[in-house]
Give the backbone structure.
Amino acid sequence: MASAAPLSLRAGVLSLLIFAIFALAWHMATRGGPAGPAMDPEYAKLMGATATQGKSAMPGPLEVGAKLIEHLRHPFYDHGPNDKGLGVQLAFSMLRVAAGYGLAVLVAIPLGFLIGMSPLMNKALDPFIQIMKPVSPLAWMPLALYTIKDSGLSAIFVIFICSLWPMLVNTAFGVSGVRKEWLNVARTLEVGPWRRAFTVILPAAAPTIFTGMRISIGIAWLVIVAAEMLVGGTGIGYFVWNEWNNLSITNVIIAILLIGVVGMLLDQLLARAARAVTFPE
Amino acid sequence: MSDRFISIEGIARRFPTRSGEPVTIFEDLSLSIARGDFVCIIGHSGCGKSTVLNVLAGLDQPDAGFVFIDGKQITAPGLDRAVIFQSHALLPWKTALGNVAYAVASRWPSLKKAEINARAQRAIDLVGLHGAEMKRPAELSGGMRQRVGIARALSIEPKILLMDEPFSALDALTRGALQDEVRRICRDTGQTLFMITHDVDEAMYLADKIVLMTNGPGAMIAEIVENPLPQERKRDEIHRHPDYYPLRNHLIDFLVTRSVTFRNDMPAGYDRKKPPVVKPRAQTPTMA
Ligand SMILES: Nc1ncnc2c1ncn2[C@@H]1O[C@H](COP(=O)(O)OP(=O)(O)OP(=O)(O)O)[C@@H](O)[C@H]1O
Ligand SMILES: [Mg+2]
C-alpha cells in the first residue's frame, strides 16, 4: 500500500504519536493513587504528601511542563550562587566548552598537519597519542586542580584534553590521505609548501578534519556536565547536581532535556560546516 | 631547429620487490625529441611508459642517467612541462575555471586576479568548454574533465606537454573530437608533445614519430617509427593513403610479436643509445 504523504511527514506524525504515548504512560505512572487509609493528621504532616496521598515522588509530565515554561520565561535571572536561571547556567557551560574546544582546535589542527605530513613525526608521536587517547578526561581533573589551582580553568583544561584527540587523529589521517595526484598537480605547478598546505592539503582534508571536530564537540558537551558536577560553582552540570541535592527531580529532568537540545544544536552546527567544505568527487 | 630539445640519456629505473631483488623496469634507455615534435610512445601494459613520462615530468627520479630539456638537466617538476594525467587529476573543490586559474596563478604569481581569470577563461574557451566554466569536476562528463585538464596544461604555456593516456577512458566519439582539438592546438602553437597511448590508430593520426617500447622488465626502445602520412591528415581519409596499411601493419606486428621477441632477435647493429629510425611505406612510391 503506497502512501502519498512524504516520508518526513509520516515520520513526524509517528514521532508525535510516540511522544504522546510516552507522556501518557508517564502521567499514569506518576499520578496520585487513591488516598490511603485514614491516619493521624499529625503523623501525615510529618510523612509528607508522598506517603499520605499515594503520590509518587517522581514528577508527572504536566508538572515538568509547567516548570519548564516557568524556566523559559525567566532564563537569565541571578539570585546568588545557588539560584541562577537555566540560561545563565547553560551559558557558563557553553563558554567553558568554547574556551577548551577552541584551544584544542588551535593545537590539534597544526599538530595534526605536522603528523600527517611527516611519517617521522607520525611514528614518533604515535605511542603518546595511543596511550593518552583512551584516558577518561575526568582522570585529568585532580592533576589539573593541583597544577592550575583554579576549578574553572581546570574544567576548561579537561574540555581541552577531551576535544584534542579526535581532532588530532582525524586531521593527521585526512592530511596523510590527500590523493597523490593532487599533490603531483601542485608539484608540477611548482607550488610552494605554504601555498600547497592551504590550497591543496587543507581543502582536501577539510571533510575529515570537520568529522573530527564534530566528534570532539559531542564529547566536550558530554564531559562538561560531569566536569561541572566535580568542580561545582556554576554551569549546567553543577545545576543538575545542586537540584539533586535539593531533591528537585523536576529540575533535573528539565536540565536533561536542555542538555540534549543544546548538544543537538552544537552537533548540527558542525554538521552544517562539514557539509559546506565537503566536495563531491 | 634543435634536434635534441628533449634528451633522455641512458636512464634506468628499478623498483624494490618483496623478494629483495630489485626489478629493473628499464636501463640504459636513450631517446631524443626535437622541438615541435609530436611523439607517441606505444608498448604493452606495464612496460614502463608511465615511468618514462614521470621521469620527464620530474615526478620520479631515474636510478641512473640524465634527462635534459633545452640543455638543462631535469631533477624536479617544473612549469616548463605540463602534465595531463590519465585520471584528469582536477581539484574537485574548485570549479573548472578555478582549476585552470590555479595553474595560471602558479605560473604568473604577480598577475592580478582579473587577468588570471581572463587567461583561464581563454584556455577554457580554447578547448570548447565555454559555458561550463563554473561547474565543478563532479558535474562534468569524463570528456569535459579531460578538456579541463588540457586547458589547465595549455594555460601555463609550457615548453612541453606530457600526456599519459589522456583519452583512454573516453568513448570513441569524444576521443576523436579531443584528438582533433589537441592536434589543431599543437599545430597552431608548435607545441612539443610526448604522449603515451595504447591505441595504434590514435598514434597514427596524431604523431610525427612513434616510439616502440618492448615488454618489460628490462624494456628497450626497439625503434622510432617516422609517420609517413602527410602532415595534412583527415581522420576519415587517412586510411585511403597508400602508406596507411604498411604503417599500421608495422605497428601491429610490433605489438603482437616483436615486442616480445625483440630481445632475442635484435637487428644487426642495434644500439640502445641511438634506436633505429624507420619509415614504413608502400612498396611502389605513388604519385600524389
Ligand atoms: N612505485 C612502484 N613500485 C614498484 N613497482 C612499480 C612502481 N611503479 C611502477 N612499478 C612497476 O613498473 C612497471 C612499469 O610501470 P608503468 O606504470 O610505467 O607501466 P606502463 O607502461 O605505464 O603501463 P600501463 O600501460 O598499464 O599504464 C610495472 O611493472 C609496475 O609494476
Ligand atoms: Mg601507464
Summary: Chain A touches chain B through 17 residues (CB under 8 Å).
